Task: structure prediction
Amino acid sequence: QKEVEQNSGPLSVPEGAIASLNCTYSDRGSQSFFWYRQYSGKSPELIMSIYSNGDKEDGRFTAQLNKASQYVSLLIRDSQPSDSATYLCAVNLLIKAAGNKLTFGGGTRVLVKP
Amino acid sequence: NAGVTQTPKFQVLKTGQSMTLQCAQDMNHNSMYWYRQDPGMGLRLIYYSASEGTTDKGEVPNGYNVSRLNKREFSLRLESAAPSQTSVYFCASSVPQHRDPSNQPQHFGDGTRLSIL
Result:
């Protein structure tokens, strides 16, 4: 089992619909969780961070964390063609403590069709 | 607002050549990182520096060396390049949020696309 796992996709979503992305992680003691967006040929860009169980909303993005089930998800509401990108889940795994190392999932490619 | 600056943006090397990738950040961040990204492999940590004067191996350090020159700069060196090191290399930096070491979102440079023939 990979330490941070994501479905590689592509996740095809009609414009205006909700895109739902999931990420599971292996270390129950992990504390910090991040979602990055990466356009083709570009660098990863931080879009959300979450640290507590529950939901965190920022504009059209909602991150959801369930530490008991060891998953974190990202919802993109009212999806736009400009949301077409690869979304990377990153986790600060306690087992790799040094406090500041992140382990990245392989990413989910999202395609929003007009 | 430069953020994290990487040079060069593109480079082609021959097998056996050496090269240093440069990275500088102007955000006064303590920690810096080097990753490589290959298709289907995601981002893999090569080396990192938790603070000025310290460096540690990441997941895939073989064939690389690093230098944390000062708080701003963190360089990655390939001593004898191999075709397996063809990749996109990203530098990143971070600083604890709210004094929590585990709460350190990383900020990335634009990457260096390196091809080794």
